[in-house]
Inverse folding.
């Protein structure tokens, strides 16, 4: 970048700070919410790894209260392990998106791809929850299926919106 461009960017940033610091920068309140959400996602991601890895033992332990789980022990471990891996993949993509939000550069092609993958993983989770319902059906599992179908649709539509926003951003980046 040339010196004149850097100087112009600095003047623009100073104007934004003089106007309250809201232009082009995340406000303190938004930053707190965004970072808080990022930390929650990190906790869920690493906690999910522990929960998924401990399934063979935790299902036996929970099976003391819910004997049906012990009756279908192998199926439960396999189904919940697959669901856990899918949820981890979904959280991984969401964490990637949050990194760009914190960097204040969220309209990038990588986020479009991540949103599409999140939609795919959401549909997969709904499908696997349906498979789990064959083993034993609960009302809660019906809700999980519905929630992940809606999340999948939402992610797919949002990826289209982001794709259009990225195209507009790239177009304006080339405008002098």
């Amino acid at each position: 970048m040339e010196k004149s461009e850097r100087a112009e960017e600095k003047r623009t940033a100073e104007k934004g700070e003089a106007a309250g610091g809201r232009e082009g920068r995340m406000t303190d309140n938004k930053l707190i919410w965004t970072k808080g959400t990022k930390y929650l996602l990190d906790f869920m991601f690493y906690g999910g790894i522990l929960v998924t890895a401990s399934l063979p033992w935790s299902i036996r332990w929970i099976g003391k209260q819910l004997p049906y789980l012990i009756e279908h022990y192998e199926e439960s471990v396999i189904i919940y392990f697959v669901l856990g891996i899918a949820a981890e993949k979904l959280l991984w993509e969401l964490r990637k998106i949050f990194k760009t939000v914190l960097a204040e550069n969220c309209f990038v092609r990588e986020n479009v791809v991540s949103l599409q993958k999140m939609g795919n993983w959401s549909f997969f989770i709904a499908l696997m929850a349906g498979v789990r319902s064959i083993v034993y059906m609960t009302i809660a599992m019906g809700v999980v299926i519905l929630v992940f179908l809606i999340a999948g649709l939402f992610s797919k539509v949002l990826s289209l919106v982001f794709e259009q926003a990225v195209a507009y951003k790239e177009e304006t980046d080339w405008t002098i």
The first helix runs from residue 3 to 18. DSSP finds seven helices and no strands in the chain.
